[in-house]
């Protein structure tokens, strides 16, 4: 998750661990991943990975019966870009390890005086999606990184929330 240019994948490779997929939406980083790790699919958007249809809205249609609508993609669930847990596991199997560099801008002290460090109110606060994916795929191990400033974010409540959710 949040694969960047593949640092975790390279370290895993050195340890004999095979990377089965990336999730990185930054285009420049994605090009670097494609160059150095050809053949490993990039699923792009962590918010659309492993979403189950219960996150979508079901309703009756006049002509085709029941429709499941994905609000994240603004499309029917079957036509959206989300990759459900079952589809992920069918294609890749259950992962033994999930790694990620969860976006640090919400927690970082860098830029804080200029209105940064918005914590859980920041749209880049993607720990809930990270935890959701881990809970759905149930890997044996997880390795995530973030700045140490996350420990004091929101008087420690943000970090305690992450630990509690895990």
Could you explain how this protein is built, in words?
There is one protein chain. 28% of the residues lie in helices and 13% in strands. It has 166 residues and is α+β, with helices and mostly antiparallel strands. A hairpin with a 3-residue loop joins strand 1 (57-61) and strand 2. 20% of the residues are buried.
Key attributes of the depicted protein:
alpha+beta, 5 helices, 13% strand, 166 residues, three-stranded antiparallel sheet, two-stranded parallel sheet
Produce a short descriptive summary.
This protein has helices at 7-14, 27-36, 85-92, 127-137, 157-165; strands at residues 57-61, 65-70, 75-76, 97-100, 141-144. It is α+β, with helices and mostly antiparallel strands. The mean pLDDT is 89.
Which residues sit in consecutive blocks of at least 5 with pLDDT less than 50?
Answer: none
- The residue fraction in helices comes out at 25-40%
Morphology call: globular
Q: Structural class, please?
A: alpha+beta
Instruction: Give the H and E element order.
Output: HHEEEHEHEH
- Radius of gyration, in Å, reads 18 Å
Taking the alpha carbons of the first and last residues, their distance comes to 16 Å
| Largest beta-sheet characterization | 3 strands, antiparallel
Mean pLDDT: 89
